């Protein structure tokens, strides 16, 4: 007998979506006045194509879903307060009034493209696994990902038969780390990443002599000095420690500040964020 899986409740869906770095909105009813389908504290999770739990159904709920998906489609993040009259705006006959807070999370903002599944690449993938980054991990070898544990939901492993196609499919503004088993492949990847023109950063493993050779060849390919100067090589500074973990640790430490979302971490002194405090005072006083 086939058994249907029980649908996820809102907190199960929220935990999974956060874990996988996927975009979603948390809708929380915070006030009730008069007759309303649900009471304060009711939650609903909204994604671009699914809804988990309910605020009571009807036109009011569809309006909440529409507002949430408009935020997701526009890449909007943060909190907003919405008011619904269950008779006017919603066209329902309850006659009550509710306020709903929408908390919009647009998904992982950082995309890391990691090329190479050798010793250092494997250490980097393990180090970034707990971070809120989407990892696109490539290797051209048939057995490049052999003997690895199952990837986390935010890690996507891909064999790379074609360098140009792999670089072309990267998400916009990806951070690129190149550390394959082959110098020719490394050069082709850096060359292709520079041709894209929209990579957030490019890092290359190797010695200073390797980079001097690559620089001359990249100039011959027609890349500007300014563009080439943006490539970091060698990546990180392990203080001379060449152990894979040490190299990976220094590379991730170097990359972390580049991946920081400045809007959320460099708020101006005294700047107000979140829902306007005056609006909240009017609700709870």
UniProtKB/TrEMBL annotation:
Domain XdhC Rossmann: 112-255
Gene3D superfamilies membership: NAD(P)-binding Rossmann-like Domain (3.40.50.720)
Highest taxon above the source species: Bacteria
Residue intervals of the XdhC- CoxI domain: 18-78
Listed name of the protein: Xanthine dehydrogenase accessory protein XdhC
